[in-house]
């Protein structure tokens, strides 16, 4: 099978061929690419398989997974296709690489965060957890998609207090939505605009390690 998306993969340097590894799939923001996301999760590279998924649609010097009618208003057909193809890609990668299917994580920023939250709701416990950085859940996903339980899914949601793209109230709304659905929710605000602060990065890296059950000794 040829995957729908181009992607970048980083395998642990000292891989045990008899072992399966946790995986982080990264989903970038609108107009960005998979390489820009790797820096956020590079400290995990010895212990996780890291797969950066590139959006299939060109946008300037970068890419996107779907286009918009207006800010916060995805073109429905394109969004539906992205959600379907990303789920298929996750299964494709799990078959191809030594991925532990019980430890699959999504980490997305902005457009990638929107898709990460959507996939948590459509895949349920097929995912171990998601990290959603400055995103939201579209209303049509909440009301029209076939949703699965996320009670066993770990969810880390963060948002910039001064986000000029998606106001901070959207972060609060996303957290409230998931708080009703899972006890495994972490929600944090950071004093940033539409971006990822260093403190935010350190927090979600530690969260991912702990959630995956890793005890990492610093050398």
Automatic annotation (TrEMBL):
Keywords: Hydrolase. GO terms for molecular function: hydrolase activity. Pfam families: Abhydrolase_2. Transmembrane segments: none annotated. This is Esterase. It comes from Paenibacillus oryzisoli. It comes from the Bacteria. The keyword Transmembrane helix does not apply. Residues 20-198 form the Phospholipase/carboxylesterase/thioesterase domain. Belongs to the AB hydrolase superfamily. AB hydrolase 2 family. The lineage of its organism: Bacteria, Bacillati, Bacillota, Bacilli, Bacillales. The keyword Hydrolase applies.
């Amino acid at each position: 099978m040829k995957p729908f998306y181009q992607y970048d993969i980083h395998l642990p340097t000292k891989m045990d061929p008899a072992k399966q590894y946790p995986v982080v799939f990264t989903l970038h923001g609108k107009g960005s690419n998979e390489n820009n996301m790797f820096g956020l999760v590079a400290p995990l590279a010895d212990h996780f398989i890291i797969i950066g998924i590139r959006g299939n649609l060109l946008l300037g010097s970068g890419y996107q997974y779907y286009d918009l009618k207006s800010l916060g208003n995805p073109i429905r057909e394109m969004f539906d296709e992205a959600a379907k193809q990303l789920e298929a890609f996750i299964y494709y990668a799990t078959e191809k690489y030594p991925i532990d299917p019980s430890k699959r994580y999504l980490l997305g920023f902005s457009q990638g965060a929107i898709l990460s939250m959507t996939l948590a709701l459509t895949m349920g416990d097929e995912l171990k957890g998601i990290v959603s950085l400055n995103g939201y859940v579209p209303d049509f996903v909440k009301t029209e998609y076939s949703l699965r339980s996320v009670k066993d899914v770990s969810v880390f949601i963060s948002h910039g207090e001064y986000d000029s793209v998606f106001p901070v109230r959207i972060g609060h709304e996303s957290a409230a939505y998931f708080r009703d659905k899972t006890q495994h929710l972490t929600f944090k605000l950071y004093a940033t605009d539409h971006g990822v602060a260093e403190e935010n990065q350190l927090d979600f890296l530690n969260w991912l390690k702990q959630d995956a059950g890793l005890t990492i000794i610093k050398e």
